[in-house]
Amino acid sequence: MHKRILAHLNEAILLFNKQLDLTYINTAGEVLLADSEKHLLGLNAQTLFKSSSSLLSDLQQCLKNNEPLVDRELNLFYQNHSITINFSATPLLENGQLSEILVELQQIDRQIRISKEEQLLTQQNISRMLVKGLAHEIKNPLGGIRGAAQLLELELPGPELQEYTQIIIQESDRLKSLMDKMLGPNRPSKKHSLNIHEVLERVRQLVKIEVNHNIKILTDYDPSIPDLKADKNQLIQAVLNIVQNAVQAMRQNGKITMKTRIQRHLTIGRKRYKLTAKIDIIDNGPGINNELMSQIFYPMITSRAEGTGLGLSIAQSLVNQHSGFIECESKPGNTIFSIYLPLEA
C-alpha cells in the first residue's frame, strides 16, 4: 500500500539499505534520474552519486550519525545531465537499529530560474526608470544650449569664431542622440505574423557586410518553428545588437552561430508557455568577465572603452515587449545569448 502512495508522489523517493544499496525508487525518481527502476535497483550510492560528492557525503553522514539531514541547492550529476535539488535523508529504525535510509530529492532548477529572472527583471526595470528620468533631465537643457549657440553664431563677426559654436552644436546633437538611445524605443510595437528566421537572415546579411572574412557566421535552424506575432524591426534590432557585440568581442578569427529550437513548457515571468522559440547566439570569443555577468543588461555597462553599454539593455527591453527574455552564459571560447520568445497558439 505504501509503495502505491509513494509511486504517485511528485517528489523523488529513494530507499537505501545499510550498505547504501538502492532498494526502492518511485516513478518521480525514475523521471528525475532519467533511468528505469530495473537498471537503478541494486546500485550502490557510490556508483549512483559518484559525480555528486556533496550528496554522497550527506548520505554517508546520515548513515554514520544515525540522524536526519537536510541540504539545499545541491548539484546532482547523473548520466551526463545536471540538475539542482534539495536533499533530505531520514534514517529508518527497526528495534532501535538503523535498517534503511529514506531519501527525498526535490528538483528546484525551475524555481531558481524563475527567482533569478524576476530579480533581474525588477533590477532592470528600476535601472531603466532611473536612466530614462536622467535622460529626460539632460535633454531639456541641451535644447537650450544648442539654441543659444545658434543665436551666438549669428552675432559672431568671423568664421574662425563660429568654429567654436559649431563644436557646441555638434556635441549637443551627439549628446541628444545618446539620450535618445538611453530612452529606448519611442514607438509601440507593430506586431505581425512572421517567421523568426526572416529576422535572423536579415541580421546575418547586415553583419556579413560589416565583418572581415576571418569571422564566420553559421546557422543551425529548426525549420519546424511556427510563425509568431512580433514587430520585425524591433526583433532585428534586438538580435543585431547581440550579434554586433559578439563581433566586437572577437579578435582576428572567430565563429558566430545563430541557432533556433523549440522549447516546451517554459515559464517566463511566472507565466507558463506551452511553446517558446529559443534563439541562441553563440560565439567562440574570449567570454565575458565574471564580474560583469550579472550587470551586462544594465544601461552604460560595458568592457569596451569605445562602447556605450546600451546595446544589450535595448535588446532586453525590445524582447521584453514581446513577453520574452534574454539570458546569457559565458566561459572563454563559448558565450551563449539565449532569446526566448513565446509562440502564439
What labels would you give this structure?
345 residues, alpha+beta, Beta-Lactamase, Heat Shock Protein 90, 3 domains, five-stranded antiparallel β-sheet, five-stranded mixed β-sheet, 11 helices, 44% helix, 29% strand, elongated
Describe it for me?
The chain has 345 residues and is an alpha+beta fold. The chain folds into three domains: 106 residues, 2-Layer Sandwich (Beta-Lactamase); 72 residues; 151 residues, Histidine kinase-like ATPase, C-terminal domain (Heat Shock Protein 90), CATH 3.30.565.10. The chain has eleven helices and twelve strands. Strands 2-1-5-4-3 form a five-stranded antiparallel beta sheet. A hairpin with a 2-residue loop joins strand 11 and strand 12. It is elongated, with a radius of gyration of 28 Å. The model has no long low-confidence stretch (mean pLDDT 81).
